[in-house]
Design a protein that fits this description.
0% strand, 82% helix, mainly alpha, 2 helices, rod-shaped
Length: 67
Amino acid sequence: MENKAMSYDQSIQRIEEIVSILESGEKGMDELSELVKEAAALVKSCKKKLKSTESEISKALEDEKEV
C-alpha cells in the first residue's frame, strides 16, 4: 500500500491491521518482515503529519494573538 497517498486515519487503520496480523502469527517470516517495514514507514509518516499539524496550529494561535 502506498503510504504517501494515505491520510493519517487510513495510516492508523493500516497499522492496526498490521498489528493484528503480527499478533495472529499466521504469516511467514518474509511476509512478517515486509509488514514490519510497512508499519515502520506508516508510523514515520504519521509522526511527520502530527508534527506538521502541530506547527500549523501553533502558527494559527500565534497569528490569533497578533490580531
